[in-house]
Write a structure and sequence with these properties.
Elements (H helix, E strand, L loop, with lengths): L1 H13 L3 H24 L6 H28 L8 H17 L3 H7 L3 H28 L5 H27 L6 H22 L6 H24 L13 H9 L3 H12 L6 H45 L4 E5 L5 E4 L3 H5 L3 H4 L4 H4 L5 H12 L5 E9 L5 E11 L7 E8 L1 H15 L9 H18 L2 E10 L1 H8 L1 H18 L5 E6 L2 E8 L4 H15 L3 E3 L2 E3 L2 E9 L5 H17 L5 E3 L2 H6 L1 H9 L9 E10 L5 E12 L3 E3 L1 H11 L2 H19 L10 E5 L2 H4 L4 H12 L6 E6 H5 L2 H13 L3 E7 L5 H7 L4 E4 L1 H4 L10 H12 L3 E4 L5 H9 L4 E2 L8 E2 H13 L8
Parallel strand pairs: 11-12, 14-16, 16-17, 17-18, 18-19, 19-20, 20-21
Antiparallel strand pairs: 1-2, 1-5, 3-4, 4-5, 6-8, 6-11, 7-8, 9-10, 13-14, 13-21, 13-22, 14-15
Length: 874
Amino acid sequence: MAAAGVVLVTLQVLAPDGAVGDATYLGALGLASLVGWVAAVRCRGQERRAWIMMALGISLSAAADLTYSVIYWTRGVEPDVSVADPLWIASYAALGLGVFRLTPGRENARGPDVDAIIDSLVAAIVALLVVWEVALEDMVTDSSTSILARATWSAYPVLDVVLLALVVRLALLHHRNRSASVLLVGAGIASWLAADLGYLVVTAEGALVWLDVGWMVASLLLALAIVARRHEPLSSAPALTDQPVRERMWFVMIPLLAPVAIDLRSHMDHTESEPLALGTATVALVALACIRGHRLLRAAERAREAVHVSETHYRALAAHSSDAVVVLDRDHRVVEASGNLARLVGQDTSTVLGESGPEALACVDCDTLRSYLDSVRSTPGGVAEHEIEVRHTDGDRRWLSTRMVNLLDDPAVAGIVVNLHDVTDRRRAQDELAHQAFHDSLTGLANHALFTDRIEQTLRRTARTGTTATVLYLDVDGFKSVNDRLGHDAGDTVLREVADRLRATVRSADTVARLGGDEFAMLIEADHVEAGEARTTAERILQVLSIPVDVGGQLIAISASIGLATGDAGSSAASLLRHADIAMYRAKADGKARIVVFDEQMGAEAGHLVRIEADLPGVVERGELELHYQPVLELATGRLAGFEALVRWQHPELGLLSPDRFIPACEATGQIVPIGRWILETACASGARWRDAGDGPPPLTMAVNLSAVQLSTDQVVDDVRQALDRSGLDPGLLVLEITETGLVADPVAATTRLRALHELGVRLAIDDFGTGYSSLSYLRQFPIDILKIDRSFVDTITADDELPPIIRGLLDLARTLDLDIIAEGIESDVQHEGLRREACAMGQGFLFSRPLPAPDVDRLLANRAQTSEPARSS
């Protein structure tokens, strides 16, 4: 369209007269009308009607020009007034209405914009005064023409004035707006008004062609405005903004000079101006200026009041906030500090002003804080968040979360704003959870995860320094008999004593860990440690362990079997532990209470692991898997609540294998998927068979562990649905247990699949809850129903008094989140009683029963059906 318009305008300039001139002029108007209508009807949003009115105005103007041309062609003379005039007048009305409707947002939101109306009236009065002086006065008073002609001709400049006022209003309401559609509307209307004004004042015949060009360009620009709005996204609709007070005040005051300028012009031309018109215009402009000035002053006063109220509000919030705010200058000196600083670090505000920020905050590592501040200072507007440790004046160390913002270039602040928030409790809770995650709760020694990490670090140093890493793997001989004869409390006493003796035997730089049950390990790093020297260390350990342990006045003789393995730069933590473990089992097989050093022959025997991986395919089809079921009891009543299904492998040559012997291999080879599917179907079938065989309603539940590998597959939801359909088990009785490791691998995919499983009606539990860093975030992210407290936490219950804080915290958390909670690994009456007293709903462990084969479960249920007392099985 733009190219066609340029061509038509160019032809009009080159050949303005005759058929070519008429054709190009009417062609441009017709093109603008057609394009305007096509674009307007396709517009969307609340401005659609405004653009339709614009298209209508262009069309009415084109129809009026065509009508006028037809009259001229047929009569040969230009009529003073014709049927074309109503069409032209209607085009002004349509264009004016369209411009008016372009700004409905502010009008609808808070009523008419009085300020915009006043400014529009000012523009209209000035324009009307100028038009009156230039042409309108002579036109109205010309008695040589008919009243109809004078009224019609006078209507055009008046309508121009109205249209000008509407354009001014549009410009004011869209101040600083860069929308192409609004800019084109303004340019189009300006061209229209310029042509109209030129028609009133221009008398030269040759200049009339430029008036036609002005109307052509106006129509084309308005059509382009509609097209531009059609292609602008709805979100880019012109935003209504307020002009600064100074700009709008000048806009009102400058027009007061118009009457003076007109009177001065009349004086210089030795003509007389109309005093009534000048006086009326002057009075109107002065009145509008006074009203506008009053409104601007009121607006400024309201703005100051709003700023004061806002400042008071935020000062009150800051005064009662638990946070503190410190402002530092470019040299990190304190220039302002809130009163809450005294609570956080014990420093009074008046005493820290002018001091160095790091020293004023009493930070433990001031150099690190200075580096943080230097980094923020180098970036204007930069923001950084860190946590720093500070020394309170009472001697306590605290952790503060800091948010630093560089506002040095902001004249209102001119400093680095540091917001301080006390996160000491959270850091201590994190440290406690981290300690629980990497330390054994019973002995305080490193656990398997921490020990493995220490081995990896040592092996990396070995590659650089030439030192060696030696692992001693220790298992307490006959420990099971201690538990069976004297109970688990006595067993825990023995384990703690073993840990203390091991800790006292090795060097402080060495690492001692409890890997689980009665298994311990030691990591020894030294220069040129030979196997013989390591054996000396192991013999010293055997010697200190040979001293009987006093348990409640009864001496208990203990011994240990130790496997020893030395690694080099090519070793890994897993291989070193595996070698030491293999050697330890050889020591037990050779008669216990002895030391065995790993050799290559033992490595060949470790081929059993390879044999396990090789035999895994087809294990389901061969019928070598079986499930054992560990009862879950209500701790308050002893009522049987359900079972947890645990898989076992009856290997033809290696015997009955526990899950830890083959499940890792299943996950590594992908065999866990078919095996997990079999476990689900078998457990659901057993659950459906036993659902009503408990002590009474509600029916018994069935818990099944879901591997991280299973959770990562797309078919896990279909596997669960199929197992439920085939067994007929109520989905609400199936509990799927997922470890935190299974959730960390891919949290997004895990969320999707867990929600799909939850929609089936099954219940979801986090197993070993509390042993990972992200437990609390999981409770928010995943649809969890049950928390299972890890046995490492249960092991901390060692006395009849209050439960450890971590246990009570987990129980309170479950109640707050309306989650069921199960404690696992209950092995003593003290643990049972403590959990029951704190209203832990359910539990499981060797105190109640070991995992039982299905036939034993049938007998257990039959026995419980005959007695109301809770039965315990070993």
